[in-house]
Inverse folding.
């Protein structure tokens, strides 16, 4: 049995989009009264108009109609349904497809001015999970120190870039930078809201209790690995190097993974580790 809640869904979608009934009416070339009737459940849009509404709100017609199974469907049951009838290879590819689509699907709903910290509720029991097979690795952590989900699949190059001289040197440069305790302090400061998007070496030195020379050296290395960029500003007081950075999710993820690997509490919600040999051994 399915229940259709189109009136409630239309109100929800319009509110999330931040538009008025008049805005919707103008976009669809109908009257305000028509929109009001739809949202009050007095009448319902016909099929052509359902299609136009789904385009306007950028959702599927099922989502627009508010169709849901009676009773709450858990996330786990919904995901299990996506994998029914698939073999092992198709399951791995489907999992990657779902992960790739999940954040973009919800991104448009998040308001740009939503500055509140969004932190998943910590699990009462064990806070980590890990699945590892030759073609698939997935790690999730939900703790006070870290919240992240990582998925790794095999690749056509079999990770050969790991031992290629040029790429190996560049990778080593990144980890060499992150191995410096002062560099980690710099990463922490740059990713905090206490740090301006544009700053000088003096600004960093004062906040991290470093010498200006130390700050300049760190920022120079930071520019080489893509943590920040710089440009020269000609001021009345003289020539000044201005640095710019709004943070790097990639670098923050690397540091978080390193923290979890070395410092995380080794308690697992589930742990399945058959093999992590993802290099060689035939095509993925």
């Amino acid at each position: 049995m399915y229940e259709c809640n189109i009136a409630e869904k239309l109100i929800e979608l319009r509110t999330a989009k931040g538009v008025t009934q008049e805005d919707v009416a103008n976009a669809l070339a109908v009257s305000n009264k028509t929109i009001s009737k739809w949202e009050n459940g007095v009448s319902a849009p016909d099929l052509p108009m359902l299609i136009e509404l789904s385009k306007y709100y950028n959702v599927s017609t099922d989502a627009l109609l508010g169709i849901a199974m009676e009773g709450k469907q858990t996330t786990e049951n919904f995901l299990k349904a996506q994998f029914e009838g698939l073999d092992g290879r198709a399951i791995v590819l489907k999992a990657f497809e779902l992960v790739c689509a999940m954040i973009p699907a919800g991104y448009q709903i998040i308001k740009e001015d939503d500055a509140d910290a969004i932190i998943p509720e910590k699990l009462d029991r064990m806070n980590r999970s890990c699945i590892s097979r030759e073609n698939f690795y997935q790690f999730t952590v939900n703790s006070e120190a870290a919240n992240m989900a990582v998925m790794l699949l095999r690749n056509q190059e079999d990770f050969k870039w790991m031992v290629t001289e040029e790429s190996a040197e560049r990778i080593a440069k990144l980890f060499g930078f992150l191995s410096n305790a002062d560099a980690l302090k710099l990463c922490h400061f740059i990713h905090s809201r206490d740090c301006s998007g544009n700053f000088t070496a003096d600004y960093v030195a004062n906040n991290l209790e470093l010498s200006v020379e130390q700050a300049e050296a760190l920022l120079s290395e930071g520019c080489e690995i893509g943590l920040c960029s710089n440009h020269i500003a000609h001021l009345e007081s003289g020539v000044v190097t201005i640095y710019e950075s709004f943070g790097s999710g990639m670098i923050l993820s690397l540091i978080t993974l390193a923290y979890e690997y070395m410092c995380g509490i080794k308690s697992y919600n589930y742990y399945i580790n058959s093999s992590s040999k993802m290099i060689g051994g035939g095509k993925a």
Q: What stands out?
A: The mean pLDDT is 86. The chain is about 50% helix and 15% strand. The radius of gyration is 25 Å.
